[in-house]
Amino acid sequence: MNATILIIEDEASIRTVVRAYLEQAGFRVLPADSRPEGVELARRERPDLVILDLNLPGMDGMEVAARLRQNRTSSSSC
User: Fold this and answer.
1) Distance CA 12, CA 45 (A)
2) How far apart are CA 15 and CA 44, in angstroms?
3) Residue of 15, 45, 55, 59 with fewest CB within 10 Å of its CB?
């Protein structure tokens, strides 16, 4: 089974290039262009790795990372 990587990046050109390289390397890639979409994909798909833009509009990338960690911890303890 191939590892799944979630890319949360609001710039389409960056997201497209990163996605292309990762897919070419054999990874399953989940692209998200916003924080809400990325958090929902992370919750639903449980990716192996998240590549996160630190300058997302509306919420700092570090806050998004903290929220993803919190969601992963709270759902794994159930």
Assistant:
1) 21
2) 20
3) 55
Q: Which ranges in 1-78 belong to alpha helices (H)?
A: 12-24, 35-45, 61-76
Output the CATH code of domain 4-76.
3.40.50.2300
The string of pLDDT tens digits covering residues 21-63 is 999 999 999 999 988 899 899 999 999 999 998 888 777 788 8
> Beta-carbon neighbour count of residue 59 at 10 Å?
13
Q: How far is CA 31 from CA 48, 62, 71, 75, in A?
A: 14, 18, 19, 22
Determine the pLDDT at residue 1. 67
Helix (H, G, I), strand (E, B) or coil at 10: coil
